[in-house]
Amino acid sequence: DQQVKQNSPSLSVQEGRISILNCDYTNSMFDYFLWYKKYPAEGPTFLISISSIKDKNEDGRFTVFLNKSAKHLSLHIVPSQPGDSAVYFCAAFDSGTYKYIFGTGTRLKVLA
Amino acid sequence: DARVTQTPRHKVTEMGQEVTMRCQPILGHNTVFWYRQTMMQGLELLAYFRNRAPLDDSGMPKDRFSAEMPDATLATLKIQPSEPRDSAVYFCASGLGTASNQPQHFGDGTRLSIL
Questions:
Q1: Which residues of A fall within a CB distance of 8 Å from B36?
Q2: Partners of A76 in the β-ladder
Q3: pLDDT tens per residue, range B64-108
Q4: In what order do the strands lie in the sheet with A62-67?
Q5: Is the pLDDT reported for residue B40 higher than 80?
Q6: What is the pLDDT of residue B98?
Q7: How many Cβ atoms are within 10 Å of B57's Cβ, its own excluded?
Q8: Which of A13, B61, B90, B93 is deepest in the core (most CB within 10 A)?
Q9: Which of A52, A94, A104, A107 to mutate to test the interface with B (most CBs of B within 10 A)?
Q10: How far is CA B83 from CA A7, A49, B7, B48, B86, in A?
Q11: For residue range A34-73, what is the model confidence (pLDDT) as tens digits?
Q12: In angstroms, rounded to a whole number, what is the distance separating the alpha carbons of residues A86 and A27?
């Protein structure tokens, strides 16, 4: 049973517009959430994280929003650039088990 | 720039053969994770270590998979005997393990093909 779900396998966005990637989770005990970006033939690289006690974290063009009541988080990229084209993984961290649980990923394509 | 190093990058072998994948974590990192990437499951956690001790390997098929950390600079993942369904990309990641929001650093993976 997937505890972290990314229901959109792919997303296409025009350059300069906003990209919104979504993630849902089921375990209310997760206390950190992270986004990773992955290019082909490379490992995932950390992008941004948010603590469960926050509802927003911003880093440059990237903002992560957390809605605990809905068990939902989203990553906003504004403005989107062609170099942002990659697979984005949402991950949740459970400090009780020290496990990171990953979603299945969303492939973002930013069109020039 | 410190990196997690995985070898080999690619491995093609026949069903039934033993496969060993190696990982050199970032110096000073005390947690090591093994993941398998598949289309259907995304990144599945297979096993992880903290201070070289195995904490959880519940994600691994125990009859054929084994994970070890002979020393702080080397983690291994072995499959014996290998099967075609083991074909996937296997990632190793390391982290500091001192705070819950410390992100993991991933290697570039081993692409395994079992014929």
A1: none
A2: A20, A63
A3: 999 999 999 999 999 999 999 999 999 999 998 755 567 889 999
A4: A4-5, A19-25, A72-77, A62-67, A56-59
A5: no
A6: 56
A7: 17
A8: B93
A9: A104
A10: 30, 37, 20, 22, 6
A11: 999 999 999 999 999 999 999 999 999 999 999 999 999 9
A12: 27
Give A92-109 as a DSSP string: EEETTTTEEEE---EEEE
Spatial separation of the C-alpha atoms in residues A32 and A92, rounded to whole Å: 6
- Look up residue B5 and give its two tokens: 């190093």
Residue count of chain B: 115
Closest CA to B104 of A8, A65, A34, A16: A34
Retrieve residue B81's tokens: 């005997």
The closest alpha carbon to B65, from B75, B77, B74, B76, belongs to B77
* Interface contact B35-A102, CB threshold 8 A: yes
Inter-chain CB proximity A43 and B40 less than 8 Å: no
